[in-house]
Amino acid sequence: MPSATRRHRQRLADMTGLQNLATTTTTTDPQGAYRDLQERWGVVAPVELEPGIHAWLVMGHHEICQVVRNEQLFSRDPNNWRLFSEGVVAADSGLGPMMFPRDNAYFADGEKHRRLRGPIDDGLESLDEHRMARFIRATCVDLLREFESQGKADLVADYAAVVPMLTVAGFFGIGREQGHELRAALIALFSSAEDSQPAAHQLERILSGVMTARRNAPTDDLTTAFLRHANLRNDFEIQQSIVLMISAGYETTTTWIAQTLRLMLTDSRFAGRMRGGRLGIDDALDEVLWRDPPMSNMPARYALVDCELGGAHVQRGDAIILGLSSANNDPRVHTDDAWLEVGNRSHLAWSAGPHACPAQRPGRMITRIAVDTALHRLHDVTLAIPADDVMLLPSPWTRCPASLPVRFTPPLPS
Ligand code: HEM
């Protein structure tokens, strides 16, 4: 056994208490938290997801690429997670929504993954960008109109958390009202056991409705594309693929919009560079992907064999978390010089390998239009609380502001 591995095993045996993964997301200094972990363990550190549930947090850019590009060694399927299959993780664990298996591309490997991923890639490819942009802008303007006259709003609850659901649902031909219903159903489905049964029925009713409608009258939306795709074998697979797209796009895009708006409202250097025209909106969005990517830590891969990873001795069945935010700070890919970094897109905000986010273009388009439209329409917008009082939603995965209360000058009545 190499000496580094032996040392690591010894340290693991010596440890008294592991750090909870959420200490890297709930702090004001995530990079400091990753640094502390690396000083103690190296680029692959053992962490606790919840009491008694251990996983490895991979923090190096190179090591994450090694994991996500090698599905022979590292599976996406949680059925390969020892603590899950042995029933150590409670059925009502808060890890469930992100880590328990469901029958879709996200949780599949190899051939099954490619079969289920095909319709997603083909469907997104078929969307007309100009129409998509018009639709996203109209959705944003309608939402802003709902509160513009009040001169105040919470830009997370009233806007950033609503735009992604309504727009992605819209790509499937699901209208505004049903988009709101769908959002409520998905939140209930993923949050508490009591609400999950009625929520699942509600979801099923909305999706069956739109599928029947498109069967009778096909159009050029994603529901029609999925219905026609030879890779999807039955209605169940079509529904699961729709739910995957809508849920995968929700928290990520909400966080990206909210983080960008937060920086615009609280970081004068960032806002000044953008307002002064020295930073285009796409460069600003990239800066957020580098500094605070929507998924700070991404679950998960499961080791299929005992192996060494970045000096850590990983055992078959261990869970591996992708520390995307930490990897973005890896000096091997990123410098501290903002000007050198313009145009550098080697960050891992979208991950890499076969499961890399398929929706990078629409995700960026939704975020760009949402931020741009809000900043143009809300005159003299300022944060209504001190910058330091902006709280984050508690999560080991993301660093989404819980709310962004703002004030602005309402438009003159027309
Ligand atoms: C805009 C911000 C977004 C970010 C930062 C983001 C990021 C990610 C990341 C990190 C992954 C995981 C890759 C892995 O496990 O290795 C992922 C997967 C995925 N994302 Fe996104 N995403 C975003 C928006 C969206 C949107 C808008 C959609 C849908 C329209 C979407 C659909 C998906 C799907 C379906 C997967 C699973 C792909 C697979 O397993 O093959 N994402 N995304």
UniProtKB/TrEMBL annotation:
Protein origin, superkingdom: Bacteria
Gene Ontology MF terms: heme binding; iron ion binding; monooxygenase activity; oxidoreductase activity, acting on paired donors, with incorporation or reduction of molecular oxygen
Cited InterPro entries: Cyt_P450_B, Cyt_P450_sf
Organism, scientific name: Actinophytocola oryzae
Signal peptide, first to last residue: none
Similarity annotation: Belongs to the cytochrome P450 family.
Record-given protein name: Cytochrome P450
